[in-house]
């Protein structure tokens, strides 16, 4: 029977040609917790998210969500099990407004749960509430292809939340955000976790995420070299001894 243990990835290995991009990685993201996956470019963070969300099959390893083995499930099946994700480069319907982009996601979700008339009404209410929650109501009527990158990221976050997921995966969500908006996003992620959501995000900069995470994993050359509470990870000699080319954004 499914339970509420959140995400558990075990022994995930991905080989790309002759390169091992992810090497035996194990990772957990429990409900009510903000989990960070930190590493420089090329460390394997996005590849690991691709495996978790079903966009890439691992050579070996398993992915479970709330006790259900999703290793062989396609991406859309994992979404139905409660996964939602954002990407490094926001994906949007550029000709639609910001509000319409979120509304499409909300309608897809509510249509599975309610009668058509009720679904449309509920989707509109949900979309508007999410625009307000992520702080971009002022951009609701703007075409998605014309808004700043930071707004596009928050729009994609709103679309992900429209699915009312149990696991939220964010790929470098702070990229392109001004400092005040970045701080607001930190508070939002903490609030979402407090409501019982499992949150997992990737980031390059360890300092940036010290105050938002409950647990940190540091990935280097496809391997987890340290994990645990942020303060302990930051002081870990294995993290501090990263060679200069990889450590410049982790110190």
Automatic annotation (TrEMBL):
GO molecular function, one term: ATP binding
Keyword Lipid biosynthesis set for record: no
InterPro entries from the UniProt entry: AAA+_ATPase, ABC_AA/LPS_Transport, ABC_transporter-like_ATP-bd, P-loop_NTPase
Domain ABC transporter, first and last residues per copy: 7-246
Alphabetical keyword list: ATP-binding, Nucleotide-binding, Transport
Record SUPFAM superfamilies: P-loop containing nucleoside triphosphate hydrolases
Gene3D superfamilies: P-loop containing nucleotide triphosphate hydrolases
Protein name (record): High-affinity branched-chain amino acid ABC transporter ATP-binding protein LivG
Organism in which the protein naturally occurs: Actinomadura fulvescens
């Amino acid at each position: 029977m499914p339970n509420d243990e959140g995400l558990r990835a075990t022994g995930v290995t991905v080989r790309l040609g002759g390169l091992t991009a992810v090497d035996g990685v194990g990772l957990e993201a429990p409900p009510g917790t903000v989990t960070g996956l930190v590493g420089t470019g090329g460390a394997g963070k996005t590849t690991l998210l691709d495996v978790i969300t079903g966009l890439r099959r691992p050579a070996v390893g398993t992915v479970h969500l709330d006790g259900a083995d999703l290793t062989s499930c396609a991406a859309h099946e994992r979404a139905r099990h409660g996964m939602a994700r954002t990407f490094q480069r926001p994906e949007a319907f550029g000709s639609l407004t910001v509000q319409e982009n979120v509304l499409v996601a909300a309608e897809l979700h509510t249509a599975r749960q309610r009668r058509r008339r009720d679904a449309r009404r509920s989707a509109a209410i949900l979309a508007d509430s999410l625009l307000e929650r992520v702080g971009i109501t002022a951009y609701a009527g703007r075409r998605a292809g014309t808004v700043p990158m930071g707004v596009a990221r928050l729009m994609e976050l709103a679309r992900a939340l429209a699915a009312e997921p149990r696991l939220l995966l964010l790929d470098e969500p702070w990229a392109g955000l001004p400092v005040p908006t970045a701080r607001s996003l930190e508070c939002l992620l903490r609030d979402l976790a407090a409501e019982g959501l499992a949150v997992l995000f990737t980031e390059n900069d360890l300092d940036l995420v010290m105050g938002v995470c409950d647990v940190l994993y540091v990935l280097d050359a496809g391997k987890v070299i340290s994990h645990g509470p942020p303060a302990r990870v930051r002081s870990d000699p294995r993290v501090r001894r990263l060679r200069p080319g990889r450590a410049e954004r982790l110190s």
